[in-house]
Write a structure and sequence with these properties.
The chain is of the alpha+beta class. The protein contains 4 helices and 6 strands; from the N terminus they run αββββαββαα. Strands 1-2-3-4-6-5 form a 6-stranded antiparallel β-sheet.
């Protein structure tokens, strides 16, 4: 997997937009003003929001993710090596859904409908 894979997944999500911070050292996909996927300067993985600290810790313990440095413990970093497109898509979609649900209802109402496929 690669940055291009992450970008292609994120670009299809309603209301998602790309933002670069720190002179290109931190690239993020956001919805509203909240980040749901982040790629750092190392360009070797994507950090995503998990439902809670326990979920992030579980993903780390089973080897599906790593600790996301400088992020809250409810975030996990999924390395580009060894993961299939479906797993990447699932992690990014989950992060997007969590962040989208945390947006103010007024902002959520302006977004196009989205079905993550779980229903």
């Amino acid at each position: 997997m690669s940055r291009e894979t992450v970008d292609s997944i994120c670009a299809t999500l309603p209301g998602a937009h790309w933002a670069s911070h720190h002179e290109g050292g931190l690239d993020a996909w956001k919805i509203g003003d909240k980040m749901f996927a982040c790629i750092g300067m190392a360009n070797d993985g994507v950090s995503v929001k998990c439902a809670d600290v326990e979920t992030a810790q579980f993903l780390i313990e089973i080897g599906a993710a790593q600790k996301a440095k400088y992020f809250h413990r409810s975030w996990a970093r999924v390395p580009f090596d060894g993961k299939g497109a479906d797993e990447f898509r699932d992690r990014i979609h989950t992060s997007y859904a969590i962040v989208r649900a945390s947006l103010p209802k007024k902002l959520q109402a302006t977004l196009a409908p989205w079905n993550d496929g779980s229903a």
